[in-house]
UniProtKB/TrEMBL annotation:
The lineage of its organism: Eukaryota, Viridiplantae, Streptophyta, Embryophyta, Tracheophyta. Residues 1-32 are annotated as: Disordered. It comes from the Eukaryota. The keyword Oxidoreductase applies. This is Non-haem dioxygenase N-terminal domain-containing protein. The keyword Oxidoreductase applies. GO terms for molecular function: metal ion binding; oxidoreductase activity. Residues 33-148 form the Non-haem dioxygenase N-terminal domain. Keywords: Iron, Metal-binding, Oxidoreductase.
Length: 157
């Protein structure tokens, strides 16, 4: 039998019930994942996204304009990266100096999540406030770090 790292195990009171909650406890959510059509008007989008986040915590987006070929390439290259050995992925692990890159240590309710992520910026470099003080004019420069493999991980054109 495989032993599970205790950092992945939630306390009993935080584990989901195996029973479906009554409809009113589910805030009236249907059994279908919300689909958000980005061609809708802005007011409708705001309402739909707010409802989906409140009731589900996620949603599917349609009519976003991203070509299917690009999505397929992103999925293929992403899978190649996440299938790499851990030591390869950790070469681009994010930290205080490099907040963009690979990460596998997120926690929910003090329990490690069963996920891996790779954060990157669309605009590279990006400039963000250096502190949380609104009057502070200092900016922090954030840049992407990219893995060596797969070679086309950073190129999606």
């Amino acid at each position: 039998m495989v032993e599970i790292d205790p950092s992945f195990i939630q306390e009993t009171e935080h584990r989901p019930s195996s029973k479906s909650p009554p409809q009113e406890e589910n805030h009236g959510a249907s059994d279908q994942i919300p689909v958000i059509d980005l061609s809708s008007d802005t007011e409708s989008l705001v309402t739909q996204i707010g409802d989906a986040c409140e009731k589900w915590g996620f949603f599917q987006v349609v009519n976003h304009g991203v070509p299917l070929e690009l999505l397929d390439k992103m999925k293929r290259v992403g899978k190649q990266f996440f299938d790499l050995p851990m030591e390869e992925k950790k070469r681009v692990k994010r930290d205080e100096v490099y907040p963009m890159g690979y990460y596998d240590s997120e926690h929910t309710k003090n329990v490690r999540d069963w996920k891996e992520v790779f954060d990157f910026l669309v605009v590279d470099p990006s400039f963000v406030p250096a502190t949380e003080v609104p009057e502070d004019p200092e900016l922090r420069t954030l840049t992407n770090q990219w893995p060596q493999t797969p070679a086309d991980f950073r190129y999606f054109s």
